Amino acid sequence: MAAQNDKTQSPATLMDVAKAANVSIATASRVLNGSTRRVRNQSYVKVMEAATKLNYRPNAYAQAVAKGTAPNIVLLVSDISDPYFAAVSQGVVKAAAEHGLAVTISVAPTPREELEAVRKATATRPRGIIIAESEYVDAPERDPLTDELRLYESTGGRAVFILNRNLPFPAVDVANDVGARAIARLIIDSGYTRPVILRGDETYRTSRERLDGVLAAFADAGVAIDPRATVNGRFSRTEGYAAIMQMARAGLLKPGNGALYEGRGADSVIALNDVMAIGAMTALRANGIEPGVDVGVTGFGDIPYSADVYPPLTTVHLPLEQMGQAAVGSVLAKRDAQEKNGEIGSGSADAAAAGRLIYVQSAPDVVLRGSLPRR
Question: Which of 13, 155, 341, 343 has its Cβ near the most Cβ atoms within 10 Å?
C-alpha cells in the first residue's frame, strides 16, 4: 500500500506557471500582474491556461509594481524624533490611509543618505516619494538627486518635496520670510532690541529665508544686530542648548564687560525653529536667566510641544499636519490626472510642471504666548 502524503501542497508560484506555459518568468509576470507592456496572444493564452490549471493566485503587490504603482508612499525625513517631522509624518500617514495606501518612512539626515534612500525607494516603484528633508541647497548630490527623481517620474512615479528646493518637482511650501518678518516685528514692538539669533546651517534654505526675514525687519526698524549675536544651533534642541550655554559661559548674555551690545547683554533669543528655542530656554535657566522674565524667547513652527513648555513659547504657526496631507494630495492628483490624460510613463514636461508649487499658508500666523512679555 502506498504511503499517503499528508503534507499540504504549496501554492503555485509564478515560476511554476512560467514553466507550465513554457514562457519566461518575465512574460508570465506581464500577463498575470497586469503590466502595460504587450504580450503575444498565443503566450497570453498559454499563461492563463497554466495559471488556471495550477490555481495560481497573483500577488497584489507584484501586480502594483508591474503597473508602476505599488500601493505605498515613501516618506523621507531628516529626524523622526523631531516633533516637526513627526507632525508632518502624521499628516502624510492620515492622508495616505484615506486612499488605502501604506507609508514607508525612512530617515536620511544628510544629502548623501537622502540620495541613497531615494535610490532604494525608486527600486520598489512606490506610488509616490515625499521628501521632507535636509534642504541643503548647495550639496553636490543635488544634480544626481534630480536625475534619479526624473527617471522615477518617467516610469509613472510622483515626487513631491515638503519645502521648496527649487528643483523641477512639486513642493509644499510656506512663506518663511513673511513669518520671520512678522515675528521680528512683534519682538521689536514688544520692546526688545538686543536679540541673540539661533539659526541653522548656512547652506540650509529654510534657515536662510528665516534669517533674512528677521534681519530685514530689524534693519527696517533701525536696530543694529551685534555681529557676535547670530550663532548656529543647527535646527536641533541639543545644539540650540549648547550654543546658548557657550555664549553664557563666555559672558555674552548678561550685562557686563565683554557682553553683547556694548556690555548691555542680550534681552531676547530668536530661534528660527521651535526645538532650538526649547533647548535655549533650558540653557538660559541653567545660567540663572529666566525665559519670559529676564529675556524674551521666540521659535518658529508651532510644534505640539511649544504650548506645553514653560513659559509657553511664542512662535510662528506652520500647518505641519496639513503640509503632509497636501503632499499626499499632490502625489495622488498628479497621478490621477496623468492616468486620465494617458501621460503615464511619457515624461511629459507639461505634466511635470503642473502643480509646481503648493503654498499651504502664504502668510504664517504668529502665536503670542508667555515667553515674550511686553517690556
Answer: 343
Do 205 and 295 fall into the same domain? yes
Question: Mind giving me the DSSP string for 236-285?
Answer: -HHHHHHHHHHHHHTT-SSSSTT-TTTTT--SEEEESSHHHHHHHHHHHH
Alpha-carbon distances of 275 from 229, 249, 298, 308, 365, rounded to whole Å: 19, 21, 11, 13, 18
Query: Per residue in 81-96, pLDDT tens?
Result: 899 999 999 999 999 9
Largest distance between two CA atoms of the chain: 104
137-172 pLDDT per residue, tens: 788 999 999 999 999 998 889 999 998 888 899 999
As beta bridge partners, residue 126 has 70
Q: Residue 226: which domain range?
A: 176-318
Instruction: Answer yes or no: do 309 and 180 share one domain.
Output: yes
How many domains does the structure of the chain reveal? 3
Q: Which residue has the cell 548656512?
A: 202
Q: In whole angstroms, what separates CA 84 from the centre of its chain? A: 9
Does one domain contain both 314 and 191?
yes
Q: What is the pTM of this model?
A: 0.78
